[in-house]
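Pinned message: reference record for Spore germination protein GerE
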Amino acid sequence: MLTQKILTPREKQVFSLLIENYSTKEIAEKMHISDKTVRNHISNVMLKLGVKGRAQAVVELLRNEELHLQ
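Predicted structure (tokens):
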């Protein structure tokens, strides 16, 4: 288990919205950023975690208690 937080506040916001089933476009609109920026945040997190997809990233973030289901 990771001992330090790996998500920036913006990355956490993006992934929190992802697990609430918002699309990339909806997240961008909600956060007032571009679709590309949302995809960049997602890609950066996947690189940090060494995973190949959003679903794997979510599983790892939940496992490491970076995100919580409500």
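Pinned by admin. Summary line: The chain is about 65% helix and 0% strand.
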